[in-house]
Records
---
Amino acid sequence: MTTQLLLGNDAIALGLTQNECRVVTAYPGTPSSEILAGVVKFKKKLNRDIYTEWSASEKVAFEVALAASWSGLRAAVTMKQVGLNVAADSLFSAAYTGVVGGFVVVPCDDPGPHSSQTEQDSRLLALTAKVPVFDPSTPAETMAMLKAAFELSEKHRVPVIMRPTTRVCHAVQSIDVTDTGMPPLNGNSGFKKDQQRWAATPVFRLKLHHELNAKLQAIESEFESSSFNYVVNQPLAISHQPFGIISSGSVFTTSQEVLDELGVEIPILRIGTPYPLPRKLVAEFVSRFERVLIIEEPDACIELQIADRTHVSGRLDYVIPNAGELTPEVVMKVIGGQLDKVGLTVAASPEDSALAGIIGALKIAPRRPRLCPGCSHRSAFFTLKTTFGPNAIYPGDIGCYTLGTNLRVVDTCIDMGGSVTMAAGFYHASKITQDKRPIVATIGDSTFLHSGIVPLINSVHTNARFILLILDNHTTAMTGAQPTPANDYAADGSAATRVPIENIVRACGVKFVHVADPYDQEPFEKLLKDAQAFTQTDEGGVAVIIADRPCVLYDDSPVEANPIPVVITEECDGCRYCVEAFECPALILRADKSRVDINYNVCVDCGQCIDACYKGFIIPKEVVMSN
Amino acid sequence: MKIVLAGIGGQGVVYATKILSQAGLLRGEKVMASENHGMSQRGGSVMSHLKIGGSEAPLIRRGTADLLVGFDRTETMRNLTFVRASGNVFVNSTNGLDSSLSERLQELNIAVHAINAEACAKELGSPAVTNLIVLGFAPAHNEFGLSLDDLKSAVRALGPAKAVELNLKALDVGAKAAR
């Protein structure tokens, strides 16, 4: 037995590698992003032949992996939970057609949410799409579940979901990494034609639907005796008891620990296969208790599948909060409250309220996420704001640059690509409401390639008029620098063909297209003004500016090549303009508010803040030296 | 042993968690840790939870942590209620924690051990190893549970080779400051 410390996402990657998964595709998104990077790492280390791809979107990733499965290979696709929405069209259809090689979908849910726009439950999407689900509680368990998921997928020829949450993906655990992977059941046959299945018309789709229902019935029956469903704190005598718990996912381990802290032995039925729910097993468990509490995240998947809820409590009767992460504090409160109801009073040490009160009085301000020092988005946003002011309408998008909210130049953020469509929508609405405000949408390179192109074509076609600012930092920065189709390298570093964004924009029919470095603030301002003027001309339409500058975190060579160290002069009066308008973490307002200082530990010498002091108190160090 | 680590993005909170986790693993203990990823960019609050020889639950409940290791004074105070009565706090600070906390901390028998790790790091000529200096400072106090040798073994096991020597030196600087 070899034990190693593994991040949950690395455990998933190792599980995929050990089980001879041959194609793994993904679109990056927290908390899923490290999985594909892990597969690249393990395939090199273990010398496995695995095709890995950072796809342009989750739908693309899903279908590339699906075709591999239809070719008889084991395949997997990973994404964050909202990514499964993008791939939902494929998921629903693939459930009917079925698969050949084991096909596992890994959507990572984010209760909290820590870094997502919703707290949606991928298990519920799976339930609607009729796709079986495994729900791991720990990083270690993901490896065993992946093996079971491939087996199940191959035996019943269905796509299978393994759904971890943030607390599984981003937990680090000591794990036995002995290779227990098993080879594929269906062989690597290559694609075999079968039009009635792979290209089924509605008549055959009905047949496939019946077939899927039969598969699910068989799978439910198998899940009744699955080793992933078990009872802990099993009472010695089977008799009617006041209180039991059903739990799944990471919050199962939290529930166990809370019971330990309370010093009570309450039986928990751990469900590792929440869909299709082994209903006999669950009904039998429920029948033994006066009250059963369902603790699952982030929504009610097990609970919804229990038909008789007379003795069941959870989210549907509001006993469990219906938003936010089920932290140990929340679980303690809920379990404590339920135990109290059935007459089992217990005591557990909570946080010290007196201490919490004193800390509260210190009024420690939250540290909000901010763009990094030297970030080119900040320069683009600052110029944008000084050019069009606070009144323009600024639709934003998903990425680091959503933090343009801090600079007040992101007014909306709905989903991937939403900036472009919302800008067009605001334009068409403004014609009716007679609103003359400029509209400037911002979107990153990876997000544009993911979901911005079709909206741009639609905007050009419908004669919409707005500025689209594509913030091209040459990578998917927010999630750890994954390549996009505009890069010339692939997930594993091998050569890929670069698809330039500028060419795409021109091909979409945009007549005003300019590429500019946002670090050159003055010309950039002029370009923004020209773009706005273009949207107002008779033959005007969408104007696109590509703000071209690599992410300073992953490629700081342009800054290194031309460093501009700055100082703030004695005259600084602490007016706070730079701190609020430029919002760089290296600009620090003194505690007595008398002036601003530069934190040289984080400053990258980009010199971009010089224009952020309109009084001229931020100056290049060279000027000081030569004076 | 339940440990909360707190600091600011860029201070190496995740790396410090890795060292303690590795040290626990080398002692043959079960390890479970929880990391922050994603939105926590440079300069934001970063916290991790670590259990050595404990349960598989990823998070630590407020009021139950044995130790709080803080690389930033403010972030340490923000997370102070994680510490249980009779627990211990190790903090990188020139002046301990806010004086308004002293009385209540004393009543709860929570000990605060402060080290000016930033100054030590500057002396060493490497501000990047502030986190290791705080870690090296902690084992001198019996309550910490891991020895200086445990931490050194972990640093050696984790690598990378070119960073090991400086990291070991930083642990020693911290340990020396505790004497």
---
Amino acid sequence: MEAGYNFAYLDEATKRMIRRAILKAVAIPGHQIPFGAREMPLPYGWGTGGIQVTASIIGPADTLKVIDQGADDTTNAISIRRFFARVADVATTERTEDASIIQTRHRIPEAPLREDQILVYQVPMPEPLFRLEPRIAETKRMHALADYGLMHTKLYEDIARLGRIGTAYNYPVMVNERYLMSPSPIPAFDNPKMDRMPALQLFGAGREKRIYAVPPYTPVRSLDFEDHPFRAIRAPHACTLCNSTASYLDEVVTDDQGGRVYVCSDTDFCRTEQERAA
Amino acid sequence: MSALQPGFADPVLDAQASFRAVLEAMSRPGRIIAITTPAPAPAPLNTAAAAVLLTLADAETPVCSDAGDAVAGWLGFHAGCPFTPAPDRARFVLATGAAPALTVLDAGTEEEPQTSATLIVQVEALAAGEGWRLTGPGIESEHRLRVYGLPEDFLSQWQAQRARFPRGVDVVLCAGDRLAALPRSVTIEEG
């Protein structure tokens, strides 16, 4: 472990403050809790909220997995994994099943999560209503009153204009039928995985200084209408590498002749499928 | 003057382990979790309550305690928390004797329900698989929990508090080195 740092980088007073916020977040599912986000040794937008949540819960017995858009091998994922290996000396893994804490940017792993795992989301904008109501004082009141007509109106206007709900990611959800919540910019394809997930889900927004949570087995419902039910959309292709027709796919342009392939966004899932087929 | 007892053997890692125990308890209401990193707290503080307070209390969190001067001295030294005699102004309320009524504690506001108090109650014993039926977030179908040593009207107090969600007090029940939590979101029915 790197000398000169406290375990997991943050000082103990900061961890206590974040831990208190996490406990209240778990007690009030979907409610955003302000916290004193610290400067971290990487810029806002690179997962400082998720890192602070992870740093406050992680211990020597944990195994950490970090994914960015489903991939273990992107710059953001690798640097966060190395950061914790360096300042907390924890084991890291790329295998979903081996991890006790999974920090994620913009995806939920394809493999179902278990009770003994915690999923930590990096959140850029925690307020689901911010494009509709810019005043925080006003959105706080709307959450207090559970007044979410504005969001329903927005979805309705989508249908009136486009014939469908025009939101493919960061699709708003109701948590335990009480709080409207931003699931972070995961694809709408992942929304059903949040519903009654056995693992605890924690959300950290560093720049916006908010923490929120979804406890295990909590109902999470994507907003929709009876005549326009929520649909989880994926590209209608099989993965070029593992042939999966169930996973969420990335479209990769391969040349300047219009050539493209579709591959799993979850690299661990793709590798597991390939190993099973081999 | 009696010698001051030490706090956690390892203030960083023991606090982390205790926090994960409390987090697990709060995430899965009614499940009984053991504290594995005890601190030698003065009587009448039990192991679980001592670990919860050492882990979460500090200079930012006024504590209301009925546990006497030895505990206040120990907690004040190790956690650095201020004490208040007014239960409605405390972030953590420690009850080693009779638990105070939930209505006298700070329940937060509609807009900021997270400012509410957390009640840490020492009880005689906790038993899983019998007693109350707990349902709500964190629980797959139902958890059973029997608590020995709570006020007789606790259940009716809890039902009254459920009606004012998201306002409410969260409760941590501590028996010996074991604890269980009742976040305000949980529904409790007589078993």
